[in-house]
Amino acid sequence: MMKNKIENVLVTGAAGFIGFHLSKRLAEQGVRVVGIDNMNDYYDVSLKQARLNLLSSFRDFSFQKIDLADNEAMALLFKTNQFDVVVNLAAQAGVRYSLINPQAYVASNLVGFTNILEGCRHNKVGHLVFASSSSVYGANTKMPFSVHHNVDHPVSLYAATKKSNELMAHTYSHLFGLKTTGLRFFTVYGPWGRPDMALFLFTDAILNDRPIMVYNHGRMRRDFTYIDDIVEGVFRVMDSLPEPNPDWNGEAPDPGTSYVPYKIYNIGNNQPVELMTYISTLEKMIGKEARKEFLDMQPGDVPATYADVDDLIKDVGFKPQTSIETGIKKFVEWYKSYYVK
């Protein structure tokens, strides 16, 4: 259970992959959760609806269909509820889609995030926890990626909006004393996952005898992080209020902390896996070999990610450690139970 008194929580993106799992965890703990989502059709809406149907069985969960970019609806939401903690998991996701529809990212990730910040500011929210992304590391090549590294060279608009969220949150911590914590998630996967993510696409293709698209000719490494580890990390961070860093120095500014109540954490498995190893593990769990189509690197993509999670361990006593064997097995079991009739 939580050590701080957290009774009422807003989870944005509650019909999404991570939002669904976090809402479920909180409702199971007896925390009152208000979930919002705009239910957009970036991917299969029926999957989002199925997640919501599961959540609706919890007495402590309620849902409202709201778009983050709807200023009036968001202001009313904050005014009519007294949230102890807000967890912002709603965003226009996907690196490749940001090359096609940049406006969607501006509306959700910038305008929408401003509405979240304003709601927290004017309604005395105790802690804003928000999803950032490993994509903010962009062109960085020094591994493992640390929150104390400079991240000023994004390679996709999606990454740029996530970096913007960190900057905007810091501004509100500085101006209004709002306690804000940003979480850089590293390649999240698991049951109820997003259909645009590699594991889902691969599983679907293999089971339906279609070739899988292997980008950068398989020369990719990812810090694949299982959904339960992500949720555990978020759950603990919600309960750990950021404090000003007394050693912060403007002469040599530390990007991961501040002189205000603002903090950034990586949540990743701290163990990058070769893409071909990931694929062979999936083949083993399905019991079938994939037909592979090797392609060049996609614009906006990066060859490797690797999370330094030392701060997460130090501050909240948690390190993700679910193996890809365990995680992929659970995903395949869920996929077959949901899609294979």
Give a short overview.
The protein is α/β, with parallel strands linked by helices and 341 residues long. It has helices at 17-28, 45-55, 71-79, 102-122, 157-176, 198-207, 227-238, 275-286, 310-316, 324-339, and strands at residues 8-12, 32-37, 61-65, 85-88, 127-133, 180-185, 188-189, 212-214, 221-222, 225-226, 262-267, 273-274, 292-294. Helix 1 (17-28) packs across helix 7 (227-238).
Account of the protein in words:
The chain is α/β, with parallel strands linked by helices and 341 residues long. 38% of the residues lie in helices and 16% in strands. It has helices at 17-28, 45-55, 71-79, 102-122, 157-176, 198-207, 227-238, 275-286, 310-316, 324-339; strands spanning 8-12, 32-37, 61-65, 85-88, 127-133, 180-185, 188-189, 212-214, 221-222, 225-226, 262-267, 273-274, 292-294. Strands 3-2-1-4-5-6-11 form a seven-stranded parallel β-sheet, sandwiched between helices. Helix 5 (157-176) links the parallel strand 5 (127-133) and strand 6 (180-185). Helix 1 packs parallel to helix 2 (45-55) and helix 1 crosses helix 7 (227-238). It starts with 7 loop residues before the first strand and ends with a helix.
